[in-house]
Every structure is written in structure tokens, then in C-alpha cells.
Amino acid sequence: MRPDYRNWVPKSMVYGLAGAALAAFVLFLLFGATGAVLHGTLRLVCGIVFGAGTLLLAFLAAWMGALHRTFDYNGKRKLAKTIIDGTARYVDLPEGGTGLDVGCGSGALTIACAKRNPQASMTGCDIWSGAYRGSFTKKRCEDNAAAEGVANVRFEEGNAVRLPFADGSFDAVTSNYVYHNISGCDRQQLLLETLRVLRKGGTFAIHDLMGPKRYGDMEAFVRRLREEGYEEVRLIDTTDGTFMGRKEASRLGLAGSALLVGRK
Description:
Largest sheet: 7 strands, mixed
Shape: elongated
Number of helices: 9
């Protein structure tokens, strides 16, 4: 049995966009280009609308296809594995300690941290809903842990907006590409909510798209944490070759990827 961590850009999304682009092109030919059905101004308007729609959908299909191939665990680039393994290296748990992975998806980071810390245990939490329902589930997480032969891990439902854990419950907290997906929330506040459940002396490693448009002034946030007593706090640009190059990050829409690490 092999683990199946899935791809956050499913093939169904790529195929759906490609199919929509083809349908828009057919409509462009039928109502805009050939003049077989419509004439005059209406034909011109339909030609512009369906033509632009075809180009947009084709671009999105190509972009999503590139993302799918890049993140594919079974592909050549395996960027997802690079990020997971790279983030897990910052998670160190004491003997008998416990760690939390927020927004665990299919369990990849939770399991990687558990494998790295066999003397401790990891908990992965997620709401497993929305666009990824069916692809990412609690059962898939548990099946992946079993396939990897990892027993020091468990999974439960938990929302990053308000984690169902008491203050200071864990010796480490981690997350990967989660908070930027949560709309209507202050992302820095989401970080503080995650750090709330971290014990004094515990470590954190949180990777996300932390550009100013999504997160605001993260350098100021780092200074705030240091002023509050957090130690070894760093914001690592992971597009400088750490996980990916800047050209690749820009091409894939991953500019601003950064890793926030430190100790409480």
C-alpha cells in the first residue's frame, strides 16, 4: 500500500478548465467567427465575449496544469515533497512531546514531522471541507499514516480560525499553505491563534504565501513576536532557492512564499 497525498490542484480541475475552454471556443466559432447564427453587433459582442473567455480559460487550464505537474508527488519536480520535508526539518519535539499541524489536508506534513520525531507524537487537524472535500479527508490521512508505517500520529477536526485546543497544549506547531486560503480573516491574527496553543519553549514552523497583500507587514510582526519574548524568530524567503527559485515562484503564482520559524 502506497501513501496517496493527492495534489492540491486535482486533475479534475485541470480537465474541467480545459473542457470549458473548448466549449467557449466552440461557442466563439458558432456565434462569433463564422456568422452562421448571428450577425451584426450581436455577433461582434458574442465574438469578443467568447473569444476572451476562450483565452482566459485556456490560460487558467495551462497554469493549473503546470501547478499540478510541479506539485505532483509522483512527478519529476515534486515541489510539494520539497516543501513538506523542508518545513518538517524545523520541527523538533522533546521526548514524549506533542506537535500540531494546522490544516493538515492529506496528512503529509503531520506524517513527515512524526517520522522525524519518533520519540514524540503529532496531531493533524483540518475541517476537510470546501473545494477539497473528497480529496482530503480524515480517512485519507489515517490511510497515509498506515501506508508510511507511522503510528505516533492522530487526526481530528479543527478550524484554524479558532483551534479546539487549550492554551499551551503543544510543544510545536506547524502549517503549510493554509492561512492564505481563509478569506475574511486577519492572517496575522490566524498566526497568533496558532501560537496560542504552543507551550513556552515550543517551536513553530509555518509556511504560507506571506506577501504584504495577504499578510501585511510581516517584518513588523516578527519584531512584535520578539518584543513579546519569542526567540530565534525568523522569516525565511523560500523563493530564494530554499524551496523554489524566484522565477518558478512567479510563474506558478507562489511569490511571497515564506517560512516563519522560531521558539516561544
